[in-house]
Predict the 3D structure of the following.
Amino acid sequence: MDREKLLQDKEIVEEINRHKWLQSEMVGYDVGFEAAANDWFKHYATAWIAHHNKDNNKSKPKK
């Protein structure tokens, strides 16, 4: 998984920002984008990418 390439995807950045907001709400302070991104990539990226088919969008024809 190429993290830098994935961070150029607007939808992924939005997901990380959503994750950042949720984490920050839980602990009561801003955890920061980098910490949220690290946690998101560690716990959620693989499933999110598989669900959204990010790696295969270009190779599959649209129906």
In short: DSSP finds four helices and no strands in the chain. The radius of gyration is 13 Å. Residues 21 and 30 are 8 Å apart (CA to CA). Residues 59-63 have pLDDT under 50 and may be disordered.
